[in-house]
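Two folds, back to back.
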Amino acid sequence: MTPALARLLAASDPFAAAPAELRLELSFVGANGAEVPLEIWRRGDDLALVRFLAERDLGKYVVRRGKEAWLLAPGAKNPVRMSPALAPAGGAALDELLSLRLARDYRAVSAEESRGVVTFELEALAPDVEPPRVRWAVDRTRGLPLRAEFRTAEDKPRRLVEFKSWQDERKRVPAEIVAKDLLRTGSALTVRIRALEGRAVPQALFDLQDASAREALPPPPAPAAAAPAPGTVPSPGAKDQRPP
């Protein structure tokens, strides 16, 4: 791979420069158009808290510690361990994107360009890196990722993510992505990112027994308008993107 393509790959990684500790405000949008508002609080790659913000879901959380995830629900005596198979496609895809470090954790097996789109075939440098393989398509002119296909170690497609629009192209902050689990049937799930901010995230948020830190979180933000925020920039060819 040429130095120019290596720079293009590194610069296209949307969350490579994201703070190690951050808060995301977002919503999932199902096929019926219903939105599920959420917050994600992350502390490094190993700790994540999903906070449900809809009034009917207040007090419900998912805590991820390493590769294990737990559901915490109001009235439940104990946390319930979740199977990865129960994770929504959009949530799992976003979690993988937040942890993705293309330049650090992958090597490019090949790179091909067609009609201004460079498609990288990436292979993880270590056996514990997830996903093991990635097919990564980038708009050559704008340097923005168009889609990512997460693949198994056997090179079978596992999940498809398409970047539909951007809050901030320069900082590589997406506004909307669409994710589909290719190993299971079901419609694609849209993820709309409302806000991303770096802030201190206390370790106590991820305690499975002591809920005091979670109960001390600020009140849920006011519901966002359904229409895209002004200044949202569509990805080039967003309507016509297809896996290469």
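---
second:
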Amino acid sequence: MSSNQKRIRMLIGRFRTWYEEKAWLEKARMTKRLSPYDSMFSPIRVNRLTIKNRLVMAPMGNINMAEETGRPSARMVQYYTERARGGVGLITSGLIPVSHGIDSSVTERGDLAYFARMDRSRTVYSGWRDIADSAGWAPPSA
């Protein structure tokens, strides 16, 4: 048996019940040294906008979460509402092409789209308003 195989067997044997050993649990306890993020859950002000914490949800794939016309669907409203309920301070909506009519890869025949749009009509805008209302977002106050 090679030295690497011996080391692997030793590690497997040692870590098999790590969660039962008080000494190992003490080593893994969260301390200031291991978690220096004192401000993570405190509010932050960005220009006129105060965000409740410093957790940010990056843009994620919301393809096929819009109606064919580009209006955000009920599924998309529910998606962002659940993220807001999870406590994220700032949610950025993702995959919203602005090149409809210029880039043929984002628009299907008949001016239909897989992606949510922001460039068409009041109907499309009302879908975004539904997301904002449902998620509890409000514009920044002066």
